[in-house]
Structure prediction request, 97 residues.
Amino acid sequence: VSACEKGGQWDQALRLLVEMASADVELNTLTYSSAVSACEKCGEWNQALSLLVEMGSAHVKLDTVSCSSAVSACEKGCQWDQALRLLVDMESAAVEL
Prediction:
């Protein structure tokens, strides 16, 4: 997933997450953060936010890296309202800003 992030291959990163989950590989903060970052690099703000929701559903701890990448993806997509909402959510979830 990290290689996909570095190459800006957000769609491949998402496919890998699905394959990993199907193979019963435990997805953790690092794998999700790498996928969120891959989405951020390509301005895929909606996918980045979806991954944060998925992290919460999977009880994977949100961290500064994943949230900051999602905020940056929103910025690249001119989604300022989403970015501000995410910052408020981060504060509520006690994610370090």
Remarks:
- The chain has a mean pLDDT of 90.
